[in-house]
Automatic annotation (TrEMBL):
The chain crosses the membrane at residues 252-274. GO terms for cellular component: membrane. InterPro entries: CD300_family_receptors, Ig-like_dom_sf, Ig-like_fold, Ig_sub, Ig_V-set. Residues 25-123, 132-217 form the Immunoglobulin domain. Keywords: Membrane, Signal, Transmembrane, Transmembrane helix. This is Immunoglobulin domain-containing protein. Residues 1-20 form the signal peptide. It is found in: Membrane. Its main location: membrane.
Length: 334
């Protein structure tokens, strides 16, 4: 153990770099012409220090290609420092076969810089890859990452600065992780996402790692659901589409509205007049009985010594009595 410690101290002295203060991938694979982002986790004490990417296999001869205080004008390299997560991310665009050996480095004023080596394996068929290095998940929901591989070795899912899981069902950062595997892909499903699950992870297969950045947010209040529309074919000939001005002419709108209001007012007035007339009309009263003469007719028999004799027509008045309803009683006389 003492021998190993001495070797470590000698290595630090010769290279001028300490390998214990920065955590990053060891080796990752990428296609020529594509881009790759590599996260480098550093200690809190380096938060205000300059970070940079150094290109080259040997520490003593590597050259810085981009710094947080010195951007790359060619656009091939970039660096972003997330001080909250204590991680700076190095991005290499348009990868070439010569892009293979790099270092994540923290600059130390007045002392030896701190760095960690990583290697890019540039190949037309990457040994390990994902569809996207940046993914988004929602609070309380699940998310699945598919890790595609062409090599052999043990599968893992690791949190940068945290633990790794290898079994079918384990926990990373207090979140349950489920593994599923087939011949060329193994999927990782994180269950019940929490805010603290945001950050850098990586797929591991054998000696290769592929970084993936997960952002966990709340789902928007109104999320549009995807709707599949069936295609409709229409044959339209010689149809002139009205212009926006014709469809939205305010003069036509106000004229139509005025006519409608006028018709409603006239109809309301007519209904009001008819209602008033009906209210003022009095019901039929009983007709007076002026001009009506009632006569009592009494029939008497004249007795003679010879019995009842016929009455002379000259002394008899004939009356006709007609019965009517009470409201219109009339007596006709002949």
């Amino acid at each position: 153990m003492i021998f190993l410690s001495n070797c470590f101290l000698i290595l630090v002295g010769l290279t001028g770099v300490c390998y214990c203060s920065i955590t990053t991938v060891k080796e990752t694979s990428v296609k020529p012409g594509e881009s790759i982002s590599i996260p480098c986790l550093y200690e809190s004490k380096y938060e205000k220090h300059v970070k940079y990417l150094c290109k080259g296999f040997y520490w003593a001869t590597c050259s810085d290609v981009v710094k947080t205080n010195k951007p790359d004008t060619s656009g091939k390299f970039s660096v972003q420092d997330d001080k909250e997560q204590k991680t700076f991310t190095l991005t290499i665009n348009h990868v070439e076969s010569t892009d293979s050996d790099y270092w994540c480095v923290v600059e130390i004023d007045g002392g030896a810089d701190v760095g960690e080596y990583f290697r890019l394996s540039v190949s037309g068929t990457p040994a390990l890859s994902v569809d996207n290095q940046e993914i988004e998940g929602f609070l309380g929901e699940n998310i699945t990452i598919n890790c595609k591989f062409q090599n052999s070795g043990t599968e893992k899912w690791c949190k940068l600065g945290g633990n790794c899981v290898t079994k079918l069902s384990e926990f990373v950062d207090g979140t349950r992780v489920i593994f599923k595997k087939n011949d060329t892909t193994y999927s990782v499903t994180m269950m019940g996402l929490k805010q603290e699950n945001s950050g850098w992870y990586w797929c591991v297969k054998g000696q290769f790692q592929m970084p993936v950045y997960l952002t966990v947010t709340g789902r928007p209040a109104s999320t549009l659901k995807s709707v599949t529309l069936m295609p409709v074919t229409m044959n339209v000939t010689n149809v002139t589409q009205p212009s926006v001005k014709e469809r939205m002419d305010p003069t036509v709108f106000f004229i139509s509205l005025g006519l409608l209001i006028f018709i409603v007012l006239v109809a309301s007035f007519v209904l009001f007049v008819l209602k008033c007339k009906k209210t003022k009309k009095e019901p039929a009263t009983e007709k007076t009985e002026v001009g009506v003469v009632y006569s009592d007719v009494t029939f008497k028999k004249k007795k003679t010594s010879e019995g009842i004799a016929a009455v002379s027509d000259g002394n008899v008045t004939y009356s006709s009595v007609v019965s009517f309803k009470q409201q219109d009683r009339r007596v006709k006389q002949k």
